Task: structure prediction
Amino acid sequence: MDAYDLPTLFSHRDVLESLDPDSPPRMVALRSSPTLGSMALLPGSFNPPTAAHLLLAERARREGFGCVMYVLARNTIDKEPNGLIPEDRLLSLRFIAQRAGMGVAVCSAGLYADMADAASMLFPGTEMAFLVGSDKVASIFDAGYYGDREAALDALFSRAKLIVAPRTDDGEVARDVLAHEENRAWAHRVSILPLHPAVSELSSTRVRGMLQAGADPTGLVPSAVGTFLAEVGAFAAPASNGSEEIDRYRIRTKLLEILWSAREWAERAADLRALVRLAAGPGEEGKQLRRLIARGGARAEDLASLQSAPG
Result:
């Protein structure tokens, strides 16, 4: 499995398209590990995954959880869709979930109450907890997200605990939310897990900004994720080729769409790495392929011909 592994990327698309946000919540595990009776669910947008996500997962393992499951919602609540495509977010998560006791799952729903419902069906009898940042606590208790807030929170906390890992406030935000009269009934199901202050610097927003500026995010992302982001050109500024700007990651994204529509040929004969290299290059073949991609007119036979062209 690598950054250009088409069968894996297509399998991610298969799972994502199989999950219907309008149907009852459902979770699918792409990689799971024995739970040993307890599991910590770590939801996020993972755009991209950072060292903070890995550190939090490792801390949960040290706290005794049999497994930590990184969970990506098909439609992530309150997050911008720009950045890594979902297939690549899952791929980068799978790179860091190679460690013992870690897994990756996709959920059709973004609300924690719905995730808890889906997780309890996928892993019946497993003790569950959610790992969240302080910023998520207020939204979890926000009535605006629910038709029946009390019923939804009763269902959530009957299935899972909430472990809050504050980045900068030592848990004050979470404690303030729990101190409200309408939230006290569930306060006993919420605990604070202090993290090292340095974790506050390890945000996806900061990583994206560094990559856009051409800086090296080493130390802010797991090494496997850093290698992946550099290899595919995610968040990097477009390269100039005369008057033309070439965005390598956008090219990759467009090619994946084209190859998905020609999946039978793509899985048998396509070389995504070679096609991206060609389309991002300065030669005439690259210009031709970029024109085809821009017009939406690239076909399997065009890709096959260009892919096999000498040089």
